[in-house]
# Entry
Amino acid sequence: MPPKAKKGAPAQKSKTSEDEREEPLQAVVFADAFETTFVPFTLERPRCLLPLANTPLIEYTFDFLASAGVEEVFLYSGNHTDQVEEYFKKSKWTRPTAPFSLEIIRSNARSVGDAMRDLDQKQLITGDFICVYGDVVANLPMETAIAAHRSRREKDKKSIMTMVLREAGEAHRTKSQNLCPCFVIDPVTERCVHYEQVRPRQTPRLDIAEEVLKDHVEVEVREDLVDCGIDICTPEVLAQYTDNFDWQAPRRGFLYGVLKDFETMQLSVHTHVTSEGYAARVKNLQAFDAVSRDVVARWAYPLCPDVNMVADQTFQLGKGCVYKEDGVVLARSSVLGRKSVLGKATSVGEGSVIQESVVGRRCVIGKRVRLDGAYIWDDARIGDDTIVERAIVANEAAVGKGCHVHPGALISYGVRVADGTVVNGSSRITKAKRRRSSGAAQAGKATTDPKIVGEGGEGYELAVDDDEDEKLESLAPGDIYNMSNAALSDDSISTLDSDDEHESLDEDSKRRSSRSESFASINSDESGDTRRRAADFHHEATASIVDALQKNEDVNNIQLELQALKLSSNAEDKQVRRTVAVGLMKRIAGLVESGTSPKDAVSKTLSPNKLLIQRSVSTNKEEFSEQVEFLLYMQTDLVHRQQGDKILLFVCNVLAHDDLIEAEGFEQWWEDPRSSATEELAEVRKETKQLVDVLVASDDDDDEDEDEDDESD
Amino acid sequence: MPAATVGQTPSLSTFVKSLKTNSIESSIELLASLLKRRQIKNSRQCALATAQLLLRVVAAERIKDPQKLIDRIRDVGRRLVAAQPREMAVGNIVRRILGVVREVIESQAGDDGSGSSAPSTPTSPAHRQSKRPMISHSFSSFTPLSHSAAMPYDMHPRPGTPMDSSASTVDGMADLAAPRRPGLASSASYASTAPQNASLLSFLEHPLGRSPAGTPPSRNSPRMTPVQSSTELNKEKIDIKAEVIDGIKELLDELEVVDTQIAESALDHIHSNETILTTTSSQTVQKFLSTAARKRKFTVIHAEAYPNDHEITHATILNGGKKSSGEDEEADERWKPLTALGITVILIPDTAVFALMSRINKVILAPHTVLANGSLLAAAGASTIALAAQAHHVPVVVLSGVYKLSPVYPFDTQELIEYGDPGKVVPFEEGDFMSKIDVQNPLYDFVDAELVSLYVTNLGGCAPSFLYRIVADHYRVEDTDLSAKTG
Amino acid sequence: MANEPFNIVSTYRRLLAEDEDLTMPVAAIEALIQGLANTPASTVSETLDLVSKLTAQLKQSIPNSISLSAGTDLFQQYLISNLQRPSDRGDFDQIRAHLVQNGKLFVERAKAARETIAGFGRHFIRDGDVVLTNGGSRVVGSLLRSAAESSNNRGSIRFKVIYVISPNKTAMEDESTANIAALRERDIPVATIPSTAVAYCIGQVTQCFVGAEGVVENGGIVSRMGTYQIGMLAKAAGKPFYVVSESHKFVRLYPINQQDLGIEQDVVDFRTAKGSVKDDEGAERSERDEGVADMEGKEGAGGKAAICEPHEAVDYTPPHLISGIITESGVLLPSAVSEELIKIWF
# Structure
């Protein structure tokens, strides 16, 4: 029996269908999940058009919506909107015969929250609507869920949202390995009373508000649910987003918020747990891998390649889950193993072995090639004797003869890997130059790096900044699973998508472990949970600051945003301080890397943004601990920057100048054992010694240390 | 659990409802996507949906040239078949309707239009009556060989050119050939010469139509001068549509009553104190058995058809055919379960089939599709049963409406079998299971013709080796290859 | 009108010799038409009479007349059904003229039919199949060839062919070698085995295709010696066994067993030290030859030819071994053949 999209007792069914008559069922789709777990591919293509088993992701989502009887769809596309529109111009969804009306909304929303608020302003939503990401692969029966939601809403206007969740076992390949949502549900009312993200067998406890436990006779704590972000919302949800402008993510932002002030607002969120059908989000490369395999192995039936969702597809199912389109040319001695997909007009050379792999259209697979769990997208070419394991080779990319692409490697659009190159698992090779500000790729060719792609190749290893370096080294090399973390880059950090949180969180915790010595004293007191939240906060906030600085936003806005973040994840001042420190340093370092002299960089960055520091660092005379902390944070951060020492020097100089930090502050900092805990730290602060000495010695001879600066330039 | 079938019931009925409102094109799209999503499944529902849709299409078509109509229907058919090649009922219905259209056209061209369009009460004898004239009137035109004259023209473009072009040529030839045959027949002293001309001899006879001087391929037969044909068409234009619609209505009636018709012969096949083995929750079989149960006492052993069908099967055994009916909700007559009729029903797992076979007098199966060569596709497990039956020399009776009978020759049986959701076998929750082990869940089995002893259709019983005749009576050769995918 | 220069037999042979693509039935029809052409027959009965005479000659003088009789019967029946129409009197000359002129056309059609069948065959052969076939049936050859060619537009069909080669070098041999060469040309791997090895390799075969000289009324076929055993082996191994044949090879003949084919072929030749046991048969045959001789001129050659050479010996494969008969108009079950024949004759 295939999963039925139309389901539920006839009574309900007919009822809902009538409802649909009176108010059209609407849906909001976020084509861009505001994260970059798919870098480098998302540098050049919108994520929702990435091919899953040779069918663009968005097709699955729309098919799901269509089968759920949706009549109006609003598609929020983040970057590459042109490509998205281009695609839909041609697709069947914009034809008059399409099951629903599609409206593509261009927006510069940087998070789901923004989009929601924008939607609220536009006044497009009339009634209940389904809210999904553009990467959902699902055939869940929605009928019952919608019916239940509506009946609830009729009873109680305060029940504003129903989350549709799929039961799945303990470990599931479509689930995130390291962090899973934990819902606390009242089984009677199906109300979600508490939500937290826990990491299995690590989170010691859930902190459930005791009144919750008071109110509810019985609660279920469920960790086995796949949450693929399918929510049935009332317009009220939008209003809520607008009211709380700091809510960004639907789960950690919205849900968390609503649950937190349930006492005051009395708004309730319900869950609909189903054990039928298939549901998964292709939220990162790990999920991409897992879902691809589900689809090919027919777990998502009937959403399998041989359904030929896109008009011109001609897949036919062969023995052992082998799907072939017309015009596939297999050499006589080539072997097509189980669970493989071959697109139209692809040719496979003599003696090649393909298994558990997805090969796009018009690909040319050479002789004696071995593809094992590989994902080869359209028009790619694989040279003779090459081995590609669980890795992705994107459109028009070419891998030369006798190469070995290790599991986890990502070879982006149009990259050429020269003959005989070995591509290791952690590398993400692309040709597109990435701009820090947004995911949008500029056409500008980046310099080819022969070390990566071999002589005569094209493309370079995607630049990774230090956070990522740490991640990469902290990850077991290879294996597509881990790429989900590895692929996290700073242009994603400005966004607050729940899944992004997973990633950032993971790497952040890892960073802690890697730097425990430097932070031991500061964070030693934090419990696992608060520490986690802190981690999230820090990561997000830093990112947003850096971002803002790049855009030279008005300092007040930055401050505001920071404040908002602080509130939303009730962070402590200490964290804010750290954030500001790291943020500023990062920005400065960035400038320095891009060639400006440390001095200019510092002055350029600090002078307009003094406010930040003032806010985060109290300058009252007797309490210097904050200042010390601030300096420490800067110092520790600068350890990893190039010319960290110089920067530190100038920063200190400026700070001293503007009396943002008192001489005593400097003194105490200098005394502080933590500031010289490791030799890097000592190394970094060496340059500054003179300055400090001078400061400590006397506050009156500024000109002198000016000179010193000049000398040290 | 009940959802398992209730799920489909709305999807068919909602589709039928939407037909009234939607535009033709979007209904076609809708049906295609419903088929793709398997929201309409099982032969009966597909048949109903297709017939309804085509009824709508024909009704909407402004028929200037019947050829246009044929092409149109073909085109729609092709799209539907492409959407779900394994639901052969779709293709069958399309072919049936094409047959009706051609029938009408020919009866227009030939003088006797009455036979085919005679309204008929849907009881089976009446059906035969209404069929007889059209069969005899251009008897041979149905037989596989009839168009050997036309075939070469049909087939030449085949290797290479896309289907539709050659398809149109088929029709072209067919229409050239079609009116001629009755013409000759009428001029002939005894009607049976007409078939001759169209049969083996055709490859000699064909050029006869042409004037001796003419170089054969280029020129039309004198009887088919465009002028005249156009005049013919003019007078067709009025009633051809009406007649085609009648034809389709007739078809729909047939679909409605097919079970009753099959059930009529129940008493000939089921005798007192027999032990009958059946599987799945086929409505046809249920009706068949319950009809027999009114007069006779026997025992039914019911294999549960795990994993795809067992829930419905249980439901059926427990409380009658309704749940399994798959009818659209208007027709929801819920007949009593067999047990209520005093029949002993024994439910067994599929694995016990062989062990029990020695005690069985008759196996009754309901196919998913019956293929031209007498073999059939049925719910997974049927093959096991058939083989077990053969081993114990137990007769296997297959109950199949004609609409399940497909002219498609099973070139590759593997291709016809659909693989379903492995989640039925191992629940989706078993995360590590599904990541480690390949699970497969074929929905259908292929049962070879020689394992089947008898087919009972709504036209009566017939041996597998005789099925080709029924196929020939119901489908036109030129329609057999609707689209490249049907194979 | 018997004694006139036109010699049906030699014409027939000539036609076959000229165009090796010609099948025997068609050649026979051709011959008859030419016969008509050279004979000023004016009335229907006269014509029919002539045709039957010619046919008789032909059948007599050609050792294995099964295949060609298909053609002659077809032709006669056609004349009867068309000429004997009271209304069509006027048509007589026209028909005759038409026949005489369009002789070639029939040949074209016959070949067209073959192409058609080849077109069908494509569907039968799937990726990874191993096809077993025997001898040089032209239809089978073209079928396999088209399958090999179609691989480019329908995606690659990777199939192999096992050719059963009869041990003794003959004309048929060349046929099959030609086919084999053609297939290998299109890089289809072909193995050639002696008929003794069929049982050995039937296991790895996925289906069998054989040609036929004639398809008889009960759906069985008359075909080159050895086909029957392939059929039995295929049945035993549960492999589909397809006959490929144009529908003009259908013969009105109902053989009970191998000896019942109505043609002389001394395959089973019992010998003692004194030599062959069946001299008497030889004797009666010789006098039949005289009968032929006085009817015809110098038919000695034909007389000697009247015994099948061992290489063109045929056997009869009963219908229950046949999974399907692939004709230009689709795949027939053996049971459908009789109906087609009946339609001509009654």
Chain B touches chain C through 48 residues (CB under 8 Å). The CA atoms of residues 61 and 290 of chain B lie 43 Å apart. Strands of chain B lie at 275-279, 299-303, 344-348, 362-365, 367-370, 376-379, 396-399, 444-447, 454-457, 460-462. Confidence is low (pLDDT under 50) at residues 1-10, 112-199, 206-233, 323-332 of chain B.
